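Input chain follows. Return structure tokens only.
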Amino acid sequence: MWGEWWNRFVASDPALRRFRTAIRVSCSVALTLVVMLPSLTLLGQPLSSALIGAIVAIQSSVAVNDTSQRQRLVTTLLMPLPATASLVVATVTQPLPLLKVGLFLVVIFVATYIRRFGVRYFALGFVGFFGYFFAMFLRPTLEQIPYMALSAVCGALAACLLRFVLLRDDPQGVLERGRRTLRAHVHSLLHAVRDLAERPDSPKRHRELRVRSTRLNETALMLEGVLEQLPGLDERRRLLLRQRLLDVELAAENLLTPLTRAFEDPEDTRAVPALAPLLDVLRTDPAEFRAAGKRVAENFEHQGSVELAMTVRRLGSAMAELAEATAEVGGEDDPTVEEETVEEAEHDSEDSSSKDSTETETGLRRPEVRIAVQVTSAAALAILGGQFVSPNRWYWAVITAFVVFISVNSRGDLLVRAWQRTAGTVFGVLAGILVASQVTGHLVTELLLVLCCLFLAFYCLGYSYSALTFFITTALGILYGILGTFSVSVLGTRLVETAVGAAAGVLAAVLILPTSTRTVVRSRSREFLLQLRDLLRHAGNETNSTGTVTGLRESTRELDEKLQQLRNSARPLTGLRLRSRNSKLQRELTVAQGCAYYVRNLAVVLGHTAEMTDEDTRRRLAEALWAMAESAEALTDESDRAFDETLRVLRGYTEQLHDIAEALPTGPTSLHRTINLLDRIGQTIHDLGREFGVAERREAEPAG
């Protein structure tokens, strides 16, 4: 039982990234306070100046996400500059309320707009906003600015110490933890299968199985991203690790088919007792995966379940090979390779920036301009509304209006975030009142509880925005006690101001340059289909011209990333409505996920097929792939061909392939499997066309 819960914990936090981030945040804040509080006391300065250092430490730990270690270090060291500049501007304009408010709107616009120049400017703009915000919160004098600047430098240095020395981002360690996470995901997937076996007709358990499969795919994608940051790793070993990750993912996914098929057959009960030994395999030491999987597979073979035996054997081998490949990565870092990786990353970043700058969209159509205008308008509305609630604390409405726009792509995203922030604040206010009323006056206890709340808040970052807001609000209640300003009315004012800021953000998103969620979903669907088209065309070209297929795994992962973006953009629509299997959007996502799954399998088997078949068969395979690419393109605005026409052409080519396969003297081969996968992909494209309303309903399945 304990092992199952531990696997769920590991699976919920791939490679323990959230846990490590939360540790960094809380420890860097603690270190900043340990240094600054005694220093400020000796210098005769208010202890509240240490808050700026804490904010810089938090933002340096969370918002700095450059592509290389060197770039992250530079950005972290730059963080005190915009924070101090904002403090100076806000303090100088303190006697001029109208100018102070006007400049605040300018700071908000600039902090949002400069994100277009890259992730470094996202972090610098973010900390610049918070510098201005906390200047209004703390109301410092000009004499305090040097000490606040010193506190900001201390916060940045503390974050550097935690991030680059004590809890350094070691890609090797991340990969090892990620491998354990991948195993935990497979374990959770099989537990979901076990739950489904108990109630095969439960839509909830079917949905849970899909969710587990999706998380397995997302974790594999994350780990492949980590491979790009591994220093001293040559391209051959990098490709080997990618292959092993894909093998584990596919082996686990392919295991679902014979198991779930057995559940659908009431007379076939072999799969249910099969789950116990399968779970035992996953508890085995990595070095024993292959042998343990072989023993379980032989048992299934004796029972007559050959397909299940093959998938179990494949899973055991894949897990063992991944463990072996991970163990081979190590040794001393090669600084030359690391420098090359950094330079390549910088070059890619420059290419990306230049590509962005050549976009045809101008003026208010540019995404960064549109969002900056929306955020500034929301902040202006929040200032007006917040003034009616509290002339002295309206800035809480502004911070809500600002942060609800972070990482949102549509009105639906913003509505969800605004609701989550308001709900988290409501419960956080209640918790803050309860906790602060008990510990106010006990400084050590208060500081420890603030650090504990920070840890829990940032552990929830990216997982539950409501929980993050809850713990931050609770920490603020304790902080008010430390500053000697705690009262129920103060927290009540924060709650109302939060609601005002959320409402201002929603109004700005709905009325000012709005982007609907459905528009974003359509755009993401188009990107997914065009990536599918490019992948199929590339596969067809290589099959026809060289007789070998390479480079498909990169394209496959790009397709997975497009699918993940599509799922994320659709989340406001699928999460807020009553979930139903008849939901059109949910069906589209399910079909797209199935398509990506079949393409991952095709990427593995097509190379073997191309090498083992004659030139005529390869040409027919290429024609089928090209026709399938045309069908995918016909679902977008880049094609002028009728979708049903492309399907008829595709069916003609697949029928020819079935004729060739039936004429083979031997049993099932890689050609049979490739044709079967092409049929499956063709069917998912047809199903997507039906969901889009451009395909004729077809009762019969594709040939084969």
